[in-house]
Specification:
The complex is a heterodimer of chains A (about 220) and B (about 300).
Chain A: H1 3-36, H2 38-44, H3 46-55, E1 69-79, E2 82-90, H4 91-100, H5 107-137, H6 143-156, H7 161-178, E3 185-195, E4 211-216, E5 220-221
Antiparallel strand pairs in A: 1-2, 1-3, 3-4, 3-5
Chain B: H1 4-13, H2 18-38, H3 43-47, H4 64-72, H5 74-89, H6 94-111, H7 118-132, H8 149-183, H9 185-189, H10 192-197, H11 216-236, H12 240-260, H13 264-272, H14 280-303
Classes of the chains: A alpha+beta (about 220), B mainly alpha (about 300).
């Protein structure tokens, strides 16, 4: 190989090494921009941003969002056409208890609990947002009015259809697992926030300790 | 003075983290294999089109149709993941298999994006970074033939950049997490831990309508200690003087999360990466010390 060829090869490898370094820097500039300047980055690189975010969500929080409540799901059971006697079952509590049995060796219950929890949280958030918008539009009504209206709107909205169908299917599955007779009965799902009692330590902030209903579905047959 | 050329030359000299990258390849593959085996009973629920809990694939635009077809044959994808992981553990197929491991787990994540937790995302990130690195200098079935001198130098550089990417990413996670906590009013008030240990979704012993009370001083120490640690660790861990202490405190934090917060994958995957912050020579000294402890234990047993 002549000296000229060798020098050409050297230049090529040098260029490649700079390219690697440039790739490394570009990658990290892209990731940091996507987290700190999300909108402009998504505007400039829409496809890349969407693809990258769908794989690696780098918006890490690790317990950063503290909730003063736990999100719960109740099932109200009643005989069709007879609303006088009802039975209430806490489905979120039931699924969490199932998850905690034999943990970490019960992946099915763990997976189901995580799916149910995410779905309840998402549906609850959608209902809360809807209620907040309603409050702005129609002010001065009591809380029940906004929950009723937002729940009805959520049930009608096609974007929530999958979440609600999943929760209804889960309710049927849980009833079957619990061995509860559902013949001739119908059910309603209620999402609510169960507020955690504040620490009794002096000086700690005091919060509402009641349960707060966020969403309730219409009655559905099994 | 700082020179890009010098930096480039330094990165090409050798694969600085060769041993630990190889260890990480094996450890992540074994962990993912274990996760697949443990999650076996949940596959139909998570991935099948016939699951009573239907989750649409979390992919935008062009891939959506493909993902629906993959969901119809999700067990093939699982078997493929397992085969690739076994090959990757033994270093068979080198980077090609590592790249395929990343792609197969990316698809698995996309067909049910709702299920992933922090540990799953971090594991996927690790497969992404390790896919291009030289992780084959140790723990392989067949010895690796070196490339030509110049190609080997480029390979070293890529491996070093990817190793640093893993380290930067880990620091980035802690830093982001600290920023998130500073933005949260309950973390700022010092009471966040109280709410987490009383939320049955997070804490193993929460629930049954009982309130778990910790002394105020413990709550404050844990609360502000976590914020300070997560804020300082991404910077201090790069200095030899603080490194072991910072990593020890992070290990303590993850042990607490592992033991009480039901997030097993996340803690394991995070802690596995700590070894990258040590040089090859330091790791060898540590290994010798560990071997020495075992030898002394064996000798005293024999003497008895």
């Amino acid at each position: 190989m002549s000296t000229k060829d060798l020098s050409k090869k050297d230049t090529l490898y040098k260029a490649l090494s700079f390219l690697l370094l440039a790739g490394f820097l570009s990658y990290w500039i892209f990731v940091i921009s996507l987290v700190f300047f999300s909108k402009p980055t998504r505007d400039v690189f829409p496809r890349q941003s969407l693809f990258y975010s769908s794989l690696f969500n780098q918006n890490w929080r690790l317990f950063s969002y503290t909730k003063k409540y736990s999100v719960q799901l109740n099932l109200v059971l009643r005989t069709i056409n007879n609303s006088s006697t009802t039975d209430t079952i806490n489905l979120a509590g039931y699924q969490m208890a199932e998850r905690k049995k034999y943990i970490p060796f019960n992946s099915y219950e763990e997976a189901l609990e995580r799916l149910v929890h995410t779905t309840i949280t998402n549906t609850g958030k959608n209902a809360e947002n809807k209620a907040a918008r309603l409050k702005k539009e129609v002010a001065g009504k009591d809380d029940l009015f906004y929950v009723e209206q937002s729940s009805a709107a959520i049930e009608k909205d096609n974007r929530n259809k999958d979440n609600l169908t999943n929760l209804e299917n889960y309710a049927r599955h849980a009833m079957h697992e619990m061995g509860i007779d559902t013949k001739g009965k119908e059910f309603q799902l209620i999402i609510f926030h169960h507020y955690i009692l504040p620490s009794t330590a002096p000086g700690s902030p005091v919060f509402n300790t009641n349960d707060q209903t966020i969403f309730f579905s219409s009655y559905k047959p099994f | 003075m700082f020179s890009i050329s010098q930096l480039s030359q330094r990165l090409q000299q050798n694969n600085e983290k060769a041993f630990y990258l190889a260890f990480l390849r094996v450890a992540i593959s074994v962990w993912l294999l274990k996760e697949l085996l443990f999650r076996w009973p949940a596959f139909e629920l998570l991935y099948s089109n016939n699951s009573f809990f239907s989750v649409k694939p979390g992919v935008p635009y062009i891939f959506y149709g493909y993902m629906q077809s993959i969901k119809e044959h999700y067990m093939l994808l699982i078997w493929l993941c397992m085969l690739l992981l076994v090959l990757n553990i033994f270093g068979i197929g080198r980077n090609l298999v590592s790249v395929l491991v990343f792609f197969s787990f990316a698809i698995l994540k996309l067909i049910n994006a709702r299920f992933s937790n922090g540990g799953d995302i971090m594991a996927l990130l690790l497969t992404f970074y390790l896919a291009g690195a030289n992780t084959f200098s140790h723990f392989t079935l067949f010895k690796r033939k070196p490339l030509s001198w110049q190609n080997e130098r480029l390979y070293n550089m890529l491996s070093n950049l990817l190793a640093y990417s893993i380290m930067i990413n880990l620091c980035f996670v802690y830093f982001m997490s600290a920023l998130g906590k500073i933005n949260d009013p309950l973390w700022r008030s010092g009471m966040a831990i109280h709410y987490f240990i009383n939320n049955e979704h997070y804490f193993l012993f929460a629930g049954n309508n009982k309130t778990i009370e910790l002394p105020k001083v413990v709550l404050y120490a844990l609360n502000y200690g976590t914020i300070i640690l997560e804020l300082a660790a991404p910077f201090l861990v790069w200095f030899r003087r603080f490194r072991s202490w910072v990593l020890f405190l992070l290990l303590l934090m993850h042990s607490f999360i592992f033991s009480f917060f039901m997030l097993y994958g996340m803690s394991v995957i995070f802690v596995l990466q700590y070894g990258l912050f040590y040089s090859e020579a330091e790791l060898k000294v540590m290994l010798q010390k560990v071997k020495g402890i075992f030898k002394r234990g064996k000798k005293s047993k024999d003497a008895l």
